């Protein structure tokens, strides 16, 4: 059973016109709890954001199924009704489900969904297709908990266990991909800042 959480991350980005602007990005992570979701999103985005960033919000996302498409650069939420018949009354019953599809456009999203739904025994109909603001999706990788390395990586559950042990109301140093960060949990939001200036370029970002 998958548990998906939508996480919003805020940080300063240099825009194309050279001006600095605070942007907020949304990501989807597969995790067992809010705390694990926060640990996963910090670990995933820290190597790609130069400077300080803040985990602004984490909420549960009601997603029944994910359909990936390596050629897609956007994520679409598709509401589907599964259609069944009541054996006693013969009445038609519709059960709603939310699917998330990776695609380049709306038409392709429908095609990817229909391809992924091939072989399903239940009848269904598409109720709506909506483009989301998700920048990326991080599903749970099978075998994550079986790996144990000195440096925490996305696949290493040791990082998540360590993060979950961090006390509220304190600042703690953590190491991700060989870089040291300060995790500040003294305020309402969790703020992550590199201990030393990073030379990595910021390769992500959309206007909030």
Describe this structure in words.
With 208 residues, the protein is mainly beta. Helices cover 15% and strands 43% of the residues. The protein has 3 helices and 11 strands. The protein has helices spanning 34-45, 106-116, 157-164, and strands at 4-14, 20-30, 53-61, 65-67, 74-85, 92-103, 123-131, 134-138, 171-176, 179-184, 190-194. A hairpin with a 5-residue loop joins strand 1 and strand 2 (20-30). The longest helix is centred in the first third of the chain and has 12 residues, at 34-45.
Give a quick precis of the structure:
This protein has helices at residues 34-45, 106-116, 157-164; strands spanning 4-14, 20-30, 53-61, 65-67, 74-85, 92-103, 123-131, 134-138, 171-176, 179-184, 190-194.
What is the element layout, followed by pairings?
Layout: E1 4-14, E2 20-30, H1 34-45, E3 53-61, E4 65-67, E5 74-85, E6 92-103, H2 106-116, E7 123-131, E8 134-138, H3 157-164, E9 171-176, E10 179-184, E11 190-194
Parallel strand pairs: 2-8, 4-6
Antiparallel strand pairs: 1-2, 1-3, 3-11, 5-6, 5-7, 9-10, 10-11
